[in-house]
């Protein structure tokens, strides 16, 4: 074969495919604006079998109209799709699988669809590529999981296609940048089309089509916790966290996971922590969504800065009125960015604390349990030591000394804490000999069991029984007994080696509340800075506007 026989290599197949798709759909739009009643034929014109599709579904903001429209497409035309998206939150996400239009998914969190997804996996109707962390999935958007078509959501668009995302920017920049600059197609649903936007979050030449949805996109108030539901056990665990951990390490930069356990800590800052003289010494800089339960601590002057993954329903006026605390745009509204905040939580924070559903005797934890594939969201990035970190802080250095002892090259370590009651809902023990994740991996033919936080990254466990400092354990046997020692009356806790556990207590590896000068009788709800959602509204000076389901007055 000579040179003239070699077929000419084309280097613009993605661009040619994109042009062909846009040509097929051109008659359905006026410029970039698509009427809502033409969105289904537009999707059928743009999406091809086997495409990798991202339906923007974050923790909160959902491209719900576009998801519903995708379910209305012809399954014989749109089939064998590969969904790559942060959250499978809407019923329509699972409907697409049940209709046979999706053959593979890569995601981070499934939340309310966890049980339906588990049933589909068990019946082998869907293949899971992997359950990622948010940051990991964003990274793969730029390597081998680049969307061919992205369906996103924004607050508003102008007639040229510029987008305003408002306080819920979340995943949008990462999705759009990966899709647009690799020859993909971006379709945005917006709540309104206006002549002039308050600010431009996504430029028009990164967006192909805009459709005004019949109803505003759905936003989940995921981070609202009613203080009325915080128990006295959670108050006790919050006191242990503040006095036994935050104060001792001088934790200033941190991230809290979602849940009532961490909400209790936030509400104890202006009361219990203030009485301990910790104002200005702990919890000053956060990577955190604008939790309503953080309002009293902000108003009390505990908090200096908060960067957020997303916003929270009802917090818009409050965050806009506190620009010294929250990152805000020139228009006055908060700017969130999940990718940047994940990076901040991973590299710039000294502590992550969150809850889980199961912990094994090596300290591995998972929220994937039998009949429920919830995923992890951002917890694995927050809950992992950042080995690329090169800046020091007192808390990071102390944790490094405790965990590594005297080594030639000094290095710190991030504090990763699981805070759990020994029994969770329906008296299911939080501590287990073997994670359900192993069975799930076998059922779903996954290469790895879906572990949220690996035991090697876990530094402390807090329960109502006390705190276990795993950094100080010198053998695997000590580590196992430290975990059993705070596992209470669970089957795991009941077979602890009593003498070894008492030895660990003598060495300060296990500490009970009384060892830290905490009286259990003091752990009452009276310590909470707000005991109801109404109290949070008052603390905000009337700026917090809670969703209807949290109002009982």
Automatic annotation (TrEMBL):
Entry-linked InterPro entries: MadA, NagB/RpiA_transferase-like
Key words of the record: Transferase
A Pfam family per the record: Mal_decarbox_Al
Transport recorded as keyword: no
Keyword field contains Transport: no
GO molecular function: transferase activity
Domain of life, per lineage: Bacteria
Protein name from the UniProt record: Acetyl-S-ACP:malonate ACP transferase
Organism of this sequence: Sideroxyarcus emersonii
